[in-house]
Structures are given as structure tokens and as C-alpha cells.
Specification:
Length: about 290
């Protein structure tokens, strides 16, 4: 540990840091499923400068670390991430920087990660070294069978309604890789929440979800039923229209047939004078009666 750290009690260092506005902001406790990916969002405020012989000397962060099982993360404390390490652990990826973002991502999280993680910054002068001692508590659980919860408590859902199905278990998870199924077929959507809507009758079915990392976590089926009243009404209107068209067609054909039966004779107009077995046409000319 730095000489300055040894000379000044750690509690006093924390007091000075608090006065200077220095600190680390951690997320609330995190619950993670073994094998999943978890992100620990984190921000920090470093010491900007210090006074030396009446002169303000600027500071620059040159090293950042994340460690477990140690309150200060100093000296030879094993770290899960060290910006100076030549052989970083691929499971731990630093998504932050040297200026204010200290976000850490843990991939394929294991039971050994069930611990308190702490962030430490080190400057180009020991007076800028600081560790966020409160840390963030990470709890790791074995994969459990998921359950589906709906944003709507209604039994049968209405058409054009929007509904969110959430894939959950015993605790709140972050960045879960979830697979969704409808009637046994995989859906393209992923993530803990499935957005449905505006709903149609086609959205009706049995939905399930589970973690991609373990098929044993597949949830029990959750039935989604969308009312079909409007669909039935449209079907009835369509059927009625078809019936009317058929009846109109039959009526027209019937008229033609009846007309053909009644009009069995046609007048063949003649310019000649009236003759036997003839009658006068409507146009006033003499016509001969002919059988069709």
C-alpha cells in the first residue's frame, strides 16, 4: 500500500474523501442465476487535485481495480479485474473508463462470485487513491424453474390491448438471456419481458419461457386468450353477404328461366298484309306466330 495510506488512518482518508466529494456509486444488491451474465453499473468521482506547499497539483487516475473479500482492494489483494494486469480473466470485463465510469460485467457467473465486489481507483499520486468500501453485494443462485407474470389480470384479453409477459423467478435478475415459446415454437424475442400488442386473435396460445443457459428452467405454460367477438361478428357479416349474393344470383336465374318458359313464342314481323293465324304486334305491325 502507498506510504501516504500507511501514515494516515483509513477512516480519516474516507473523511477527507467525503469532504472532497470523492466516492463510488454502486447499484443495489444483485441476484444472479449461475451461468448468466450480470452487469454491475457503477460510477466514481476521483480526487481532482491536492495542495502541496500552497500549490494545487492536479491528479490523474492511472489504475482501476475490482476485487472481492477485501475492504480496501490494496496491496496484494487478489482482484477480479486490474487495468494493469497482463493476463485478465475473460469472465470479468471492465466497461468503464479512468474518468468516472466503473461498470463491471461478469460473464458465466459462478457460485464463487457470491460475494461483495469493491472498486478501487489509484492516481499518479497516492493522495488520489480511493476504494469504495461499501461495495455491491452479488448473490448467485442455481438455475430455477421460471414463472410468467402478466401485466394484465384479466382472464380473456381484449383485441388491440397491449400486454407484457415477464419471465421471473425468486429474485430480480439483470440482463437475463431468455428464450420465449408459443405453443412449443421458439419466438424471435428475447429478454425477461415479452411485449404483446396490439392484440389480435392470432396472439392466443400457450406461452412459456426459460433461460438459454439451462432448458430445465422452462416455465409452466401461461395461457393467453384474446376475445374473438369482433372476429365472429365480421365472419357473420361476411357469411350474410355471401348468402345475399347467392340468393340474388338464384333469383336472377329464376327470373330468366320463368321468362323463357312464358315467352314461348316470338313475333316475326312481316311487311305483308294480315294473314290467317296472325296477330298484331305491340308495334302495330302484322306478325306471324312462331313456336320456339
Amino acid at each position: 500500500m502507498a506510504v501516504w495510506d500507511k501514515k494516515i488512518p483509513w477512516s480519516f482518508m474516507l473523511f477527507l474523501a467525503a469532504v472532497a466529494g470523492v466516492g463510488v456509486n454502486y447499484p443495489p444488491p444483485v441476484c444472479a442465476v449461475k451461468g448468466s451474465t450480470v452487469t454491475l453499473p457503477c460510477t466514481f468521482t476521483p480526487v481532482k487535485s491536492f495542495n502541496q506547499n500552497g500549490k494545487e497539483v492536479p491528479l490523474r487516475i492511472v489504475r482501476v481495480l475490482w476485487c472481492v473479500k477485501h475492504e480496501i482492494c490494496s496491496g496484494t489483494t487478489p482482484s477480479v479485474y486490474d487495468s494493469r494486469s497482463m493476463m485478465p480473466n475473460s469472465r470479468y470485463q471492465y466497461l468503464g473508463d479512468m474518468t468516472g465510469n466503473c461498470t463491471l460485467q461478469i460473464r458465466d457467473i459462478q457460485m464463487m462470485d457470491d460475494a461483495t465486489f469493491r472498486f478501487r481507483m489509484e492516481a499518479d499520486n497516492p493522495r488520489g487513491h480511493y476504494t469504495g468500501v461499501s461495495g455491491v453485494r452479488v448473490r448467485v443462485t442455481e438455475p430455477l424453474r421460471m414463472t410468467i407474470k402478466s401485466s394484465s389480470d384479466a382472464g380473456e384479453l381484449r383485441r388491440n390491448q397491449n400486454v407484457t409477459l415477464s419471465c421471473t423467478t425468486t429474485c430480480t435478475f439483470h440482463q437475463l438471456e431468455v428464450t420465449w415459446f408459443k405453443d412449443g415454437s421458439a419466438l424471435p424475442q428475447s429478454g425477461p419481458a415479452l411485449q404483446l400488442g396490439p392484440l389480435t386473435a392470432k396472439d392466443s396460445g400457450n406461452y412459456t419461457c426459460g433461460l438459454k443457459i439451462n432448458t430445465k428452467t422452462i416455465s409452466p405454460p401461461y395461457a393467453v386468450r384474446v376475445e374473438e367477438a369482433e372476429e365472429k361478428e365480421k365472419d357473420e357479416v361476411t357469411k350474410l353477404l355471401i348468402v345475399r349474393v347467392v340468393l340474388f344470383t338464384l333469383h336472377t336465374v329464376l327470373i330468366v328461366i320463368v321468362t323463357a318458359i312464358i315467352i314461348k313464342r316470338t313475333c316475326v314481323c312481316k311487311k305483308a298484309a294480315a294473314a290467317e293465324n296472325s296477330e298484331t304486334c305491340d308495334r302495330g305491325v302484322i306478325c306471324e306466330i312462331s313456336t320456339v
